Amino acid sequence: MKKFLALLSMFGLIFVSCSDDDTVADTTPTPPTPITFTSGSADFSNYVSLGNSLTAGFSDAALFQSGQTASFPNMLASNFELAGGGSFNIPFMADDLGGLTLGGTPISGNRLILSFASGSPAPVPVSGQGSTEVSNVLSGPFNNMGVPGAKSYHLLAPGYGNVAGVGSTANPYFVRFASSPNTTILADAAAQNASFFSLWIGNNDVLGYATSGGAGVDQTGNLDPSTYGGSDVSDPNVVAGSINAILQAMTANNAKGVIANIPDVTTIPFLTTVPHNPVPLDAATADLLNGAYAAYNQALLAFSTNQNPLGAPQITPEEAAKRTISFQAGQGNAVVILDEDLTDLSVFSSALINMRQATADDLLVLTSSTFIGSLANPADPTSINGVAVPLADNWVLTPEEQQIANAAVTAYNQVIAGLATQYDLALVDANSLLVELGANGFTQADGSVVTANFGTGGGFSLDGVHPSPRGYAILANAFVEAINTKYGSNLPGVNPLDFTGLYIK
């Protein structure tokens, strides 16, 4: 009996010991403390955005529903909802194609997609006919007041939404949602009595000049924008007056806001993709071309010395060397271009036109990629554009034209920075952001890098001018950072990986 009791005691010890060893710790994760998002000193309850195509969500050469949903203001609005923000109404296009019609007649093309039909990837319009009819006016008001094509002074222009003026004084995108034919973009925006607003305007005041290869006119000194052409550079005082009027109206009821400066328009893929020397030649063709340009080269040499009919040099030896045209067999021949900044020798001979070969300092527009190598005259197989026939001014932004564009951007950004301070607004340095995107790219959470490389970088869409949805997300985060810093809010931003870098269909 004693042995039995002893065994029981031993089993009891073993049981207690095993029970202690088998004690399992509670590993249930503690739920993270919920983050309470606040607006700081801002009020996001009624947000209105003003601007141009960059505000509207324009992408791949068109405005379409998916792009509008992926606009940076819509991304901001989703953040604002976390801190008291209200609804954000968008004047949606009728479909995802993007084409516009007026009275049933197409007036703009569909969005671009990357096609492999030719054997190599190339941007082509998506098939079908866009169903967005301009004259079908939507009922507002709309929080996204971004209007593709708008310049700074267009936001103040009565009749910019009048369908009768489409093609001249009116904008078809604004016609679709203007409250009346003679209203202004600013009037419709200000009437909403926003508690918070964003403004990104001024890009188009210089962008058209750059993308047209400098074919427009620098209107600095001309304070009458009614005389400007579509590709002209706006006078900085006109831009300053327009932005000041916009800010004055939007802050009249003490609304807070954020404003962005203008990116360097010479660094976009539209101007950095096509190389200056894309022409391959065999030896026979190179010899033929050199023979054809021999007389031109000899005349340049003569006019740079006293061995010409005038007896005195008309150009420097440096300019003569710059204008001398020479081809070699193989890859990498530079295209021949017209350059109005060269000395005009055509008064002495019609054959001495202002032409030279491009250098790495010249920027060829994206659309020149399909023009170079085509025939100027289908009946003449030697009339090759960019080789035997010089490229016209609209295909190339020369260094002198780049200086004009950069001077305008610098002047506009000084204005914007000053007005941001005057009206006590958050300021987004979009210029530095896009320079960084082009130079180094942005590394994402998964290790991938978004760059400005055309078609593959993920930062820009297929038009080479406007960001992709992922590019817009990077911009949205820059806006969020500026807003948080200025107003003490703690908005989380967006994850660029949630947005595509390239629409695949």
From TrEMBL:
InterPro entries: SGNH_hydro_sf. Coiled coil: none annotated. Residues 1-20 form the signal peptide. PROSITE patterns: PROKAR_LIPOPROTEIN. Keywords: Signal. This is G-D-S-L family lipolytic protein.
